Amino acid sequence: MSGADFIEVTPGALSPDACAAIVARMRGSADLHAGEIGGGIYPDLKRSRDLSISGRADWADVVQQLNVAVHDGLMAYLRKFPQTLIAPLMLQQPDTSGALRRLEAEDFATMDEARLGGLLQTCLRPGAINLQWYAAGEGGYPYWHCELYPRDPSCETLHRHLLWTIYLNDGFEAGETEFLFQQRKVAPRTGDLLIAPTAFTHTHRGNRPQGGDKFIATSWVLFQRAETLYGAG
Hints:
The protein is an alpha+beta fold. 24% of the residues lie in helices and 27% in strands.
């Protein structure tokens, strides 16, 4: 684990045809709006045209497609970094005798897909998906930022545990997702999935694409709320 930066890229998580279809639908949408950040619209910090697709019947097929792609990448992430779940949550499961036993990192390697998938669904939930269109030479999110902030009274933004991005196209220069402290730039490649932690340790920015527009789908993986994990009491 020495030297891990906890930034994982899954090549080809979504097929090129699926990516192209999403881009085409986005280009034709009448519902695009100026890209927002937590405090509102600030084009000097983020300049994009966005489309929030969660909860929309006309985009339900794309939401499902993206969540399936992210789920597969997330399962691999949990196997590589089981502390994603066991560090913040004191997880217990029955052993062969039926007695509760606290899970350890080593247990994740022997879990089958169904058991790990059940654990994932018990502890985590998908966030709202946003499609983003960055115009060549002017679009981007050059402000160094992380994904946690306390402005939301419902505390939903503080439940964000991991961020993800699926790059929907390439064929342009720059436009990387750049992580400040890890000194790492992730170059967009069609269909690749990026997963990373949301906290200040993974402060990042979206560099401006040059010579072509950049399209991405992005969201978060959130903890289940306390009342779901622990009950209303």
